[in-house]
TrEMBL record:
Keywords (A to Z) from UniProt: Lyase
Gene Ontology MF, one: lyase activity
Listed SUPFAM superfamilies: Glyoxalase/Bleomycin resistance protein/Dihydroxybiphenyl dioxygenase
Protein name per Swiss-Prot or TrEMBL: Putative enzyme related to lactoylglutathione lyase
Residue ranges of every copy of the VOC domain listed in the record: 5-119
Coiled-coil boundaries: none
Amino acid sequence: MKFTEIAYSCYAVSDIAKARAFYEGVLGLKVTMESDMGDVDHWVEYDIGSGTLAIGRTAGWKPSADGCSVALEAVDLDETIAELKGANVPFKMEVIETPVCHMAIVLDPDGNPLIIHKRKPGHH
């Protein structure tokens, strides 16, 4: 078995409008695909670089702070953190430094963790 890439990462959300206000309004992501099947399913995708981050609502799939998390690579970490704090986004973890990066964890409106990340020069 072989795979060529991660097709997408997705967060379950309970309220599409509230989630979109965060992902589009606060984070500034642009919708690249949307499928709205009313009360059944609703799916929104955002292409970021060569990857895709999606949010979705469907029966039996619930948001969880214990699930997978996505790391967004910031162009300017300090500016991004300041903007998130200015928008009163809750932080699960303030900025920390690792040997290869700086990162913080914020929470979307459903409590899903989202890593705000910046690699140090020379790390890919």
